[in-house]
Amino acid sequence: MKKTDAEMGGPEQRTAAVLRRVGKGARGAEVGVFRGVMSGLLLRGGFDRLFMVDNWLPANKQPKAYKDTRDGMSRLSVEEAAYNRARSYEVARRFKAKAVVLEMSSAEAAKKINDGSLDFVFLDADHSYEGVRADIEAWLPKVRKGGWIGGHDYGNDHPDYDFTGVKRAVDEAFPDVETDANFTWFVRV
Fold first, then answer.
1. Positive or negative CA dihedral for 3, 8, 11, 15?
2. pTM of the model
3. How far apart are CA 1 and CA 24, in angstroms?
4. Residue 120 pLDDT > 60, yes or no?
5. Most-buried pick from 3, 81, 97, 184 (CB within 10 A)?
6. Can you point out the beta strands (E) in 80-183?
7. What is the residue range of 14's domain?
8. How confident is the model at residue 2 (pLDDT cuts 50, 70, 90)?
């Protein structure tokens, strides 16, 4: 499969934005892994433990609200979803005990993580308002005091997508939001 535009620069920019906030030895979660590119970069950048959360569901199993955003990840064939899953597991195998794959919904995965145990959570899964709101609600308690929660596609007004729900959900949840490269957003907890 050919690389997406996001794979040709976006993950590096997002990773750099995360690493500017959280140093080596961090424990975190990436929710919405796609092919594991950013996960690999975070682990190579010094994360001690990374929970890689994704359900890798094809389009016919994605929520309507998410498909309505026209996000390409919500419209994958069974074969494309399986390919992305396999690539992510390859990344996890390279980093052995530092990478933990949680192949399940975001809400299910959050229940497996202790409250206050993570230095960082990066949300890049369901880009609908409902999805982002639910992810913030599920994952915010997992971040320790002084840690960070953030995500992708905040303010991304590309005409091919409708990511307005990302900004709306983030702005409703947090009064002060930092932004960085590649439409990333961050809040210190």
1. positive
2. 0.94
3. 32
4. yes
5. 184
6. 99-103, 118-123, 143-151, 178-180
7. 6-188
8. very low
The DSSP result for 11-70, as a single string, is HHHHHHHHHHHS-TT-EEEEE--TTSHHHHHHHHTT-SEEEEEE----GGGS-HHHHTTT
Residue type, 116: G
Residues 37-80: tens digit of each pLDDT? 999 999 999 999 999 999 999 999 999 999 999 999 999 999 99
In a domain, 159, yes or no: yes
Would you say residue 74 lies in a domain? Answer: yes
Which residue, 44, 33, 27, is CA-closest to 7? 33
Entry field: residues in the chain: 189
Judge whether 54 lies within some domain: yes
Structure tokens at 87: 């690539």
Domain assignment present for 154? yes
C-beta of residue 174 within 8 angstroms of C-beta of residue 139: no
- Provide the 10 A C-beta neighbour count for residue 5: 8
The structure tokens 């906030």 sit at: 21
